[in-house]
Amino acid sequence: MQAKKKWTPKKVKSYLENLLWKVAFPLLPWYFNERHFESLYRKKVDPWQYTQSSFEREKYHKTLCAIPEEVHSILEVGCSEGVFTELLLKRGKYVVGIDISQTALERAKVRLSPYSGQWELRKLNIVTDEIEGHFNLILASEILYYLGSHTVLRHLQEKFFRLLKEEGYLLLVHFYPSGQIIHDSFTEGEKFFKVWEEVTYHPERDYLITLLQKRETR
Ligand SMILES: C[S@@+](CC[C@H](N)C(=O)[O-])C[C@H]1O[C@@H](n2cnc3c(N)ncnc32)[C@H](O)[C@@H]1O
Description:
binds S-adenosylmethionine, Rossmann fold, 7 strands, single chain, seven-stranded mixed beta sheet
């Protein structure tokens, strides 16, 4: 016999949040467009306080730990002002960072100048622009929920698959539980399988880190 579902306040909150994301998904790209991010960065340096927040520091540490040792080249989608990029460079990785905001990239360029030869920054829209290169890992952290519906996520699934080398990884980091819908959508097709996943229950915000790997092409 199946156990009866128990509705705790936390479960109700998760359920409502997931429902809201499902309804809001298709509307998000209208609001979260280039103009939105560009004006955010122009108004404020480090708008999400990546350099100061202990919550972000902990999340970044966990994200770094999820990257397999053998990974060398990384495509960082939505690299912002390069705070996490710098941590990757300190670990000896080669990073191509893309972002839709020119202002964010200019700040990233200054931050990353001591690591010349190890990075490249490009102003691109991950949804509409072509990206050159092949990578061992693609990182999409706190970005995919801005981009819209399942159709967009399916398109990105194809794109990420093409951009990854054989046995390449896709590392996803988003708030939980809404992030679960996004991360699960990448294993719906035939392109990726799940290697590892962890939910961190944090007093500030819960978040989900998922490591996927590209399936072999036959
Ligand atoms: C919330 S920040 C996340 C930054 C970083 N990934 C992290 O986790 O620290 C989202 C970033 O994605 C960028 N972004 C939003 N939409 C984008 C798009 N369509 N293509 C490329 N970058 C985008 C924004 O400009 C912003 O820098």
